[in-house]
UniProtKB/TrEMBL annotation:
The protein, known as: Pentacotripeptide-repeat region of PRORP domain-containing protein
Keyword Repeat: yes
PPR repeats: 12-47
Keywords: Repeat
Gene3D superfamilies tied to this protein: Tetratricopeptide repeat domain
Organism listed in the record: Pyrodinium bahamense
Keyword Repeat in record: yes
Length: 162
């Protein structure tokens, strides 16, 4: 970023997201969040190129999810919603990863997050379901799927239209 400024090149959201992702992949959750916060501060200039996106928040949250730090993940996802950005399917997957990696695991929170996600009519990504089953157990998973069968079918239909 310093070199970009040196050459008079202004960073955009893509640049910030790349740094956030690099920090996340390196397991440096606090640094990923720091770069997200810098982007959020920059967006105060109301430049469309500097507005955080769902990717910005979710990439930072993913770093915490890998550590099982679900409180941090929930906080970032809540802030994302405050910015008017819908969580979407990948956000659910990241949240479930946090509940899976937490010690102890968080089955009640995972089931509640899944129900909330479905109640909002958001599509459920296929990859989220095996994680959910692992967290809440087979019996609870089957019960939850029976409750939410209509929503899952709708999500599948929407996905096949894309």
């Amino acid at each position: 970023f310093a070199r970009m400024h040196e050459y008079g090149v202004a960073p955009n959201c893509f640049c910030y997201n790349s740094v956030i992702e690099a920090c996340s992949r390196a397991g440096r959750a606090e640094h990923a969040e720091l770069w997200l916060r810098r982007l959020m501060d920059e967006s105060g200039r109301m430049t469309p190129d500097l507005m955080p996106t769902a990717d910005s928040f979710i990439r930072a949250a993913h770093a915490y999810a890998r550590k099982g730090a679900y409180d941090n993940v929930c906080g970032l996802l809540a802030e994302m919603e405050e910015w008017g950005i819908t969580m979407g399917g990948y956000g659910l997957t990241v949240l479930l990863l946090a509940y899976l990696r937490a010690r102890p695991r968080q089955p009640e929170r995972a089931a509640m997050a899944f129900r909330h996600h479905c109640a909002r009519g958001l599509p459920v990504p296929e990859g989220a379901l095996p994680m959910l089953r692992t967290i809440i157990g087979d019996r609870c998973f089957k019960k939850l799927m029976a409750e939410r069968a209509v929503h899952l079918m709708l999500a599948d239909m929407q996905g096949s239209k894309a």
